[in-house]
Amino acid sequence: MSSDPGDLANMADLALPPVVSFWPPAPGVWIVGGTALAMLLVAGWKAFSRYRADAYLREARAELGRLSPEPPIEAISEILKRAAIVAHGRETVASLTGPSWSGFLAGTASRPLNELVAGLNEGRSHDGATAQADGWLRDQRGRVSRET
């Protein structure tokens, strides 16, 4: 080796910094991870709570499905009345009969209930009343009254 600084024999490899370790992660990673975990836990708890709160609807739909192919309109109405009491409160629903009951069902549905309302008003089953009752039950998800 010569004392000349420009001599190529004096060249050495570049000094590289040490490799960055993946563990332990930076504090920001812990914060983001903890926040994501908390959000997942809250979302899971809300989904579980809603699932439990809607148990009455699942039971009402199952009971509606167990009825005969041409069930009496009174049986359909009884199932819907029990579900409506849970969803909208006893004070609102329990006293409804006849046209006021069918009007309440029509007013709380998101789709027309022509066959069901006609069956309730005439006192006999119509084709499609069971399917419309099932649709009304589907519309009631998440509507549990806190007064009952």
Please characterize this protein's 3D structure.
The protein has helices at 27-53, 55-65, 73-88, 90-93, 98-107, 114-122, 129-139. It is mainly α. It has a domain at 56-139. Helix 2 (55-65) packs antiparallel against helix 7 (129-139) and helix 3 (73-88) packs parallel to helix 7.
From the spread of the alpha carbons, the general shape counts as: rod-shaped
Structural class: mainly alpha
Order of helix and strand elements from N to C terminus:
HHHHHHH
The main pleated sheet reads as: none
Point out poorly predicted stretches.
none
Percent of residues in helical segments?
A: 55-70%
Strand % is: under 5%
Subunit organisation of the chains? single chain
Number of strands: 0
Radius of gyration computed on alpha carbons: 33 Å
Helix tally?
Answer: 7
Please tell me the overall pLDDT. 90
Q: How far apart are the termini?
A: 95 Å
Which helices and strands appear, and what pairs or packs with what?
Blueprint: H1 27-53, H2 55-65, H3 73-88, H4 90-93, H5 98-107, H6 114-122, H7 129-139
Helix pairs in contact: 2-3, 2-7, 3-7, 5-6, 6-7
Key words describing this protein structure:
148 residues; mainly alpha
In short:
By secondary structure, the protein is mainly alpha-helical. The chain is 59% helix and 0% strand. Helix 5 (98-107) packs antiparallel against helix 6.
